């Protein structure tokens, strides 16, 4: 595993007020992130140098906040952790204001397009519209790259003063192999020493090119997106491959369009209403006291509270004073102050007089590995927990044409439906999973679908008349669940509820399937439905956090 670089500012002493448990918790999250999201407890103990009992307490606390999951001896980052990175991304407002433009440009050019911001002498991605291509690697939101091997880096370095150049030289000496950049492939050739010339060219030209600095074949062309004050708010890059463009062809062909897109983004930034609203007074911290009471000394309250401080920056678009942080979190001023001092020392917060802001380093707390999570991966632990609780099989499915397709499943050891596996498709009209999804379709989608569907009798009670099916779908809309009894298979009863995205659309459904002899319909509604709904709530809550600034694939 690669060492985590610069978790503290070089040459600075740990301030006396720093909260040691917060530092340890952050070290654990960094190790997990650099290891692509999961490690065993023993690996964590080795990687952090912490005592096993300390690792155990940190993990118990992070599990309680929903930031990690412990499965046997393996610790895995959980989607809720993305709320920290979301707080940073929403505080800078760039992805929210410019993200749709980036996506449109990627569609127009049919190439990957990204936005990057400076992170010290490095660059970090804050938005990615990725075209998956067999030949090139692609970076994720939150990935850190060294300035000298990227196109955005040359543009940001046009604004560096002597101190930043000095820090960059020191980093090159102290980390010649790039160990601090876990997402960077090994250097393809000898160390590249022409960075300063490229920065001069970027200053003169107003654009920069990465001609295979990261890996053979990879090309990137970048232009700055200026903020209203004339600084560089972020850098817009189009990423291609030598199999599709020569470096010169990329520049000649795409630079004008890239510049037009950047100009449109600059006017978006100019026209955006100013941020700066105070966060609503919150009681984020009150649950930490409750958890402390419940779990006792195993729960490290100062760690949970310190991380709460990061979430206070979300949605404000503004720098926060100590008092604002204390109000937003419900922490005492003294606790909020110590947390801010710790976060500043570690480089996650910068302070300018009384104003505090998050830095892009917050994205190093889990964002890259979690930013590619899919809905089935989000759902699996919740389905497994429900299956364990009620001893019946649970599944997640999506609508594909007029079928439902299983995309995640937690089976019990009962013999019923052993042949249902991920990938299995059934006609949507005869399953609870499908009815929930059909019921959510707009009339313009449902009508033609039913016009073409053949309602065949598959089991004793299959609804085969369109009017009956439409009445059943109306009931699903009113009641919020579908119960289907022996319509797909004799003896099979199942109940399903929708899983909705942030906009409220049912993007998937989950169900519990059982033998009709195992529970009556009444028992099904009384015992299973409430738990199924809670499971859907948990899945939705993680989905909504994960999908705030990334695209979460449903299958
Ligand atoms: C990317 O978005 O993946 C990217 C951008 C600029 C580079 C390299 C990669 O120089």
Automatic annotation (TrEMBL):
Keyword Metal-binding part of the UniProt annotation: no
| Domain called HTH iclR-type: residue spans | 19-79, 300-367
Which positions fall inside the IclR-ED domain? 80-271, 361-545
Output the superkingdom of the source species. Bacteria
Arranged from A to Z, the UniProt key words for this protein are: DNA-binding, Transcription, Transcription regulation
InterPro entries (alphabetical) = GAF-like_dom_sf (IPR029016), HTH_MetabolicPath_Reg (IPR050707), PcaR_PcaU (IPR012794), Tscrpt_reg_IclR_C (IPR014757), Tscrpt_reg_IclR_N (IPR005471), WH-like_DNA-bd_sf (IPR036388), WH_DNA-bd_sf (IPR036390)
Q: Does the keyword Transcription apply?
A: yes
Matching entries from Pfam families are given as: HTH_IclR, IclR_C
State the protein's name: IclR family transcriptional regulator C-terminal domain-containing protein
Organism of derivation: Streptomyces atroolivaceus
């Amino acid at each position: 595993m690669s060492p985590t670089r610069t978790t503290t500012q070089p040459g600075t002493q740990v301030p006396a007020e720093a909260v040691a448990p917060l530092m340890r918790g952050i070290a654990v999250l960094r190790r997990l992130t650099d290891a692509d999201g999961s490690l065993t407890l023993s690996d964590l103990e080795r990687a952090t140098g912490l005592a096993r009992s300390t690792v155990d307490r940190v993990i118990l606390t992070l599990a309680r906040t929903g930031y990690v999951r412990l499965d046997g001896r393996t610790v895995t980052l959980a989607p809720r952790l993305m709320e920290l990175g979301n707080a940073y991304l929403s505080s800078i407002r760039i992805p929210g204001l410019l993200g749709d433009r980036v996506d449109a440009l990627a569609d127009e050019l049919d190439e990957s397009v990204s936005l990057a911001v400076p992170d010290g002498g490095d660059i970090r991605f804050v938005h990615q519209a990725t075209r998956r291509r067999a030949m090139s690697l692609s970076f994720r939101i939150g990935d850190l790259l060294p300035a000298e091997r990227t196109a955005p880096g040359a543009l940001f370095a046009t604004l560096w003063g002597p101190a930043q150049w000095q820090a960059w030289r020191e980093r090159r000496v102290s980390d010649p192999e790039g160990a601090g950049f876990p997402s960077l492939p090994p250097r393809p050739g000898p160390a590249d020493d022409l960075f300063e010339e490229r920065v001069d060219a970027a200053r003169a030209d107003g654009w920069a090119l990465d001609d295979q600095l990261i890996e053979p074949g990879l090309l990137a062309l970048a232009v700055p997106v200026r903020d209203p004050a004339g600084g560089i708010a972020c850098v817009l890059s189009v990423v291609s491959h030598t199999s599709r463009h020569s470096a010169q062809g990329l520049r000649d062909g795409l630079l004008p369009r890239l510049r037009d897109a950047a100009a449109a983004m600059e006017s978006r930034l100019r026209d955006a209403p100013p941020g700066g609203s105070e966060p609503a007074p919150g009681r984020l911290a009150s649950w930490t006291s409750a958890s402390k009471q419940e779990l006792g000394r195993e729960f490290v309250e100062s760690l949970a509270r310190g991380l709460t401080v990061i979430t206070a920056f979300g949605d404000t678009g503004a720098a926060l004073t100590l008092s604002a942080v204390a109000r937003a979190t419900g922490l005492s001023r003294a606790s909020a102050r110590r947390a801010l001092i710790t976060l500043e020392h570690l480089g996650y917060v910068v302070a300018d007089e009384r104003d505090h802001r998050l830095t892009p380093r917050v994205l190093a707390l889990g964002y890259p590995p979690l930013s590619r999570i899919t809905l089935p991966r989000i759902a699996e632990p919740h389905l497994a927990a429900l299956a364990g609780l009620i001893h019946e099989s649970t599944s997640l499915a999506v609508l594909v044409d007029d079928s439902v397709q299983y995309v995640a499943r937690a089976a019990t050891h009962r013999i019923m439906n052993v042949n249902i596996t991920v990938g299995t498709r059934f006609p949507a009209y005869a399953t609870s999973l499908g009815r929930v999804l059909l019921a959510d379709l707009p009339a313009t989608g449902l009508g033609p679908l039913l016009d073409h569907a053949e309602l065949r009798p598959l089991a004793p009670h299959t609804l085969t008349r369109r009017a009956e099916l439409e009445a059943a779908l109306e009931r699903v809309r009113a009641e919020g669940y579908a119960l289907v009894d022996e319509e797909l298979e004799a003896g099979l009863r199942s109940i399903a509820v929708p899983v909705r995205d942030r906009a409220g659309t049912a993007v998937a459904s989950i169900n519990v399937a059982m033998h009709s002899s195992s529970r009556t319909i009444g028992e099904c509604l009384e015992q299973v439905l409430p738990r199924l709904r809670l499971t859907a709530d948990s899945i939705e809550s993680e989905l909504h956090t994960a999908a705030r600034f990334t695209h979460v694939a449903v299958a």
